[in-house]
Amino acid sequence: MKVTVVGAGAVGASCAEYIAIKDFASEVVILDIKEGFAEGKAMDLMQTASLNSFDTKITGSTNDYSKTADSDICVITSGIPRKPGMTREELIGINAGIVKTVSASLIAHSPNTIIIVVSNPMDTMTYLVHKTTGLPKNRIIGMGGALDSARFKYRLAEALNAPISDVDGMVIGGHSDKGMVPLTAHATRNSIKVTEFLSKERLEQVTEDTKVGGATLTKLLGTSAWYAPGAAVSGLVQAIACDQKKMFPCSTLLEGEYGLNDLCIGVPVILGKNGIESIVEIKLSDAEKAHMQESAKGVKATNGLLEL
Ligand SMILES: NC(=O)c1ccc[n+]([C@@H]2O[C@H](COP(=O)([O-])OP(=O)(O)OC[C@H]3O[C@@H](n4cnc5c(N)ncnc54)[C@H](O)[C@@H]3O)[C@@H](O)[C@H]2O)c1
Ligand SMILES: O=C(O)C[C@H](O)C(=O)O
């Protein structure tokens, strides 16, 4: 199993590290445009192999896509992150050009690959990959919901004063400050709905804190987060590499599911060796449906800025 990660920055390196530590891939190639940067990150990570007990071989490449040839899975993290006060949507001007060029170069060397898009604004970048590469929809996956759900569980555990392992919950919708739809009515603590334990007001606070999770970290760090994003990507990569048939909310092209068309947005999917093996349609309340429609409107407005 060969995995390429484009972008050796904060998220790309974190993602490569988590993939290696989980020790399911034979090879991880990190590629960056900055001279020597990916090679340096790869060497530093390889020097953790004996300490962290993994056998995954990590190599780096300065923009030489021949090194990525025949990758089973490619992760795109290249592009600029936001600074405090910015929205993810403001990154479109620079990141669209990068994602378009990078995805074409990856596919030229790995025509059968599955692509995971991380660069922001992620739902729109995932749609761009659809529009420009012609890959089948099961092989283009946007990562956002897995991260947002992890943040949702963190906030739920905080509100419940419970260990995170007690808590389950999912965030669907767009990966944006306003577009996320945390499914509070479906969230549970050990199979009991959290609505049994938390007031409506406290759950509204959890929802709000979840939606601005990325912005909160960006304000604290001066740039956007990387540990949880890297871990979330590694979870998707592992589910595909190990054919786990796990359910994650991922951004995928919708063709009528959830009453939505011609956009990529986060919905629950099953991930296995073919990438997105199916889209799971769950029953939403009228309020949740309305939030999804509103979220889709936002994603479509950003898609409208693409020069296709
Ligand atoms: N979808 C998500 O949940 C999620 C989570 C975190 C970050 N992000 C996004 O991921 C992206 C990367 O964030 P980061 O914190 O790692 O940024 P970073 O600046 O640390 O790293 C980005 C890297 O991309 C490289 N790069 C730029 N253009 C390139 C090109 N054409 N080819 C190859 N490499 C290129 C840069 O040299 C840099 O090393 C941002 O757009 C950020 O918003 C998304
Ligand atoms: O917040 C960001 O801009 C980065 C990423 O999308 C995140 O949610 O951490």
Automatic annotation (TrEMBL):
Pfam families: Ldh_1_C, Ldh_1_N. InterPro entries: L-lactate/malate_DH (IPR001557), Lactate/malate_DH_C (IPR022383), Lactate/malate_DH_N (IPR001236), Lactate_DH/Glyco_Ohase_4_C (IPR015955), Malate_DH_type3 (IPR011275), NAD(P)-bd_dom_sf (IPR036291). Keywords: NAD, Oxidoreductase, Tricarboxylic acid cycle. Its EC number is 1.1.1.37. Residues 147-301 form the Lactate/malate dehydrogenase C-terminal domain. One of its GO terms (molecular function) is L-malate dehydrogenase (NAD+) activity. The active site is at residue 175. Gene3D superfamilies: Lactate dehydrogenase/glycoside hydrolase, family 4, C-terminal, NAD(P)-binding Rossmann-like Domain. The keyword NAD applies. It catalyses: (S)-malate + NAD(+) = oxaloacetate + NADH + H(+). Substrate binds at residues 82, 88, 120, 151. Coiled coil: none annotated. NAD(+) binds at residues 7-12, 32, 95, 118-120. SUPFAM superfamilies: LDH C-terminal domain-like, NAD(P)-binding Rossmann-fold domains. CDD domains: LDH-like_MDH. Residues 1-142 form the Lactate/malate dehydrogenase N-terminal domain. Belongs to the LDH/MDH superfamily. MDH type 3 family. Catalyzes the reversible oxidation of malate to oxaloacetate. This is Malate dehydrogenase. The gene is mdh.
